[in-house]
Write a structure and sequence with these properties.
A hairpin with a 2-residue loop joins strand 5 and strand 6. 39% of the residues lie in helices and 20% in strands. It has a domain of 150 residues: Jelly Rolls.
Amino acid sequence: MRAGRVNPPCDLKVRFFKPPDDLAGCFSVVYRADLVVEEDGRIEDVLLPEWTNIRIFRGTYPIASLPDGEVSGDARLVATGPTTHGTMFSLGTTRMWGVGLFPEGLARLTDLHADHVANTICDAEESPAHASIAGLADHVLSCEPDDDCESEAIFQFFRERLKPVRHLEQIRQIHRALLAEQSANAGHLADEAGLGRRHLERLGKRYFGFTPKALLRRQRFVRTLSTFVLQRPVLWTAAMDSDYYDQAQFTREFREFMDMTPQQFAAMPHPIQDVFMVERAKLWGSPAQALDLPD
């Protein structure tokens, strides 16, 4: 993302869809977004660290990058994460469907191992690892642009792939424990999840993509960034999560997660991320995917 870049005017309309009961616990969010960018231009923004996401595009395609991969504007089905890094992207006028998968959904609806795709972004129609979801774009784009047809196509696609998972209850326990206020370190997380430390480490990597320590660091970072976005013009020191020792620690982690300073992030326009976070908070009670309850 170029420093000092001014995005062209744009209009974004977003609609969120409640998953059906038979797929409860699998999705953090399913949404449709219609983006119109003036002057045939492209806007730039950055996504927060998140769980696995699959996005289908009808219109222009994204240019985006993570430490382990990029898409160059020629992919209509883009898969990311789970991630502990911000995803830089640019996008022009398009209609987009987004499917956020909880760790439970990743395990029950795909053949992906979270640790194998952590911090990656790819064209899911070309990636052998993503073969289990490669047909989603054809399934959705066979519809005319119609919310009911497209959303049902998404849910039916995944409904046909629903499968039992051996560690389902442990996945749910870990996810709930990640959101518990008591989970300040890996030991607390293990206690809250009712698991041994080694068992938690193995399941965390397999189904969540990262070690317990990394997951907890991501949680406090996303909590802080969400508070900052929703309460602007609040100062970073006021938004900073209580689990941080001091501002210096927060700034170091900000650079690690987002590859920029807090001041650089605050100075950037966020035509996509701000709209999504505000609308999510209004409708779902949570501004970011990583903060969503799994139940």
